[in-house]
Structures are given as C-alpha cells and as structure tokens.
Amino acid sequence: MTKFIALVSGKGGVGKTTATINLGHALTKLGKNTLILDANLSTPNLALNLGLTNPKKTLNGFLQKREELKEIIQTHKSGINFIPTSPSYSELLNTNMEDITEIFEHLENHYEFVLVDCPSGLKDDLSHVLMNTDEALIVVNPNLSSVMDALKTTHLAEAHNNTIAGVLLNKTNKGKHELKPQEVEEILGHKIIGNIRTDKKIRKALHLSSPLNHLYPRSKSAKTFQKIAEHLSLNDELNIR
Asked: Which DSSP category does 2 fall into?
C-alpha cells in the first residue's frame, strides 16, 4: 500500500520543493521505494532543482493521455525517482488539475512512499491534491506571516482527511529575530519534527542540482532530513501494525 504525503505551506518560497527532494532522497537511502511528484502545475520547480530545465515527458503529458506512466518517471543520478511537470505555459493551459486523481490511482501500490510537492496557497489546485493524499507535512519559516498562512493550509488538509505528519521548520537563524519553535507549535497545534537552519550547503546543493543528502551527507541539515525521513518511515510501520 502506498503512503501519499503532501508537502504543503501557506505561501511560496518557504523551501517546500527542497524539502520534498531531500526527504525523498533520505527515504530512498533508508531502503524505501520512493517517488517524488511535482503537483504544482502553475509554478513547477522540482525538475529545475534536479537539473532538468525542459522535461519532455511530464505529468502534463500523462494527464493529457499522450504518455504512459513509465515514460514520465525519471531517475536522478542520486537515485531519486521523480515525475516532473512542464514549465510551459501552453502545457499549463491544456492541463486540467481536476484530472490529477488519475496519477495517484496509477501510482498506488507501485511505491511505498510518494512525496507530493504541492501548490502553495488555498486555491482549488491544492484541494485536488489533498483529496488524494494520506498525510500532510507542513513546511514553514519562523515568521508570523508564514505560520499564520500555514495554519489555514493545515485546516484545509485536515478537512480533506489528511493526518498531519508534523511541522518542518525551515530557514531558521538560531533564534535571532524569529518565532521560537514552541511558538510555532502553539499556533499550528502540531509538533515540529525537524528544524532546518539557513545553510550554505543547501544553496550549494541547489546550485549543483542535487539533494543535500547526496552531496553533503554529514552536514547537520542532511542529518536532520534523515531523521525526519526516519520519523515518517516509523509512523508508516506503526500504522501497518
């Protein structure tokens, strides 16, 4: 049985795509058969962050019935399996988000974990994804606007019967001029399962189009992503039991 986990936020730019890639790689390192899916049709960045600027076989082609599932699944040099979305505006116009259920139906039972890089905000695009996922991981930055926007997203995920897997607090600055972790937890009503500090190695990995865990596995941030992956994996094993 596949566990579909949506990575969500209240707004863009919080590091959701980076988290999706690194957690996907971390789960793969744990021996979990994992795929990451770019479900952000409007502003897709997952393939770009993996060095694929103009993918030819995409989620759009699958939803438009031009391509088979096996054609759109790509494998990065780091070992991550992923499905890209086209950056083309014309492809966006020709793709109906209401059809996205079909990709989830086809992926069911092919992978242990599918991590979904979701659209930001509260529009219908996000609802269409959350109708098909089991859990939501909330990605926030340590400022009030990010957390308050994420609170609305959390409520939307729960309204679509998603279990909240926890909160990933991203781009922190050692507590300087930012919300404290306990303040974030109090506002969102959920526990932080990972705190990722602002890290030059994350920027380097992004520039080199590779997961942080792949290039700098001993870095503190990579170890934190690995611990989050272990948490997600353990939760899945407990649910099976």
From this structure: P
Domains of the chain: 3-240 (3.40.50.300)
What is this structure's pTM? 0.95
Give residue-wise pLDDT tens across range 188-207: 999 999 999 999 999 999 99
Alpha-carbon distance of 87 to 91, in angstroms, equals: 8
12-26 burial by CB neighbour count: b if 16+ within 10 A, else e? eebbbbbbbbbbbbb
CA atoms of 97 and 125, how far apart (whole Å): 6
Q: Quick one: CA dihedral 173, 28, 40, 98, positive or negative? A: negative
pLDDT in tens, 144-193: 999 999 999 999 999 999 999 999 999 999 878 999 999 999 999 999 99
Please report how many Cα atoms fall inside a 13 Å half-sphere around the Cα of residue 142, on the Cβ side. Answer: 21
Q: Output the six-digit token pair for 140.
A: 């926030």
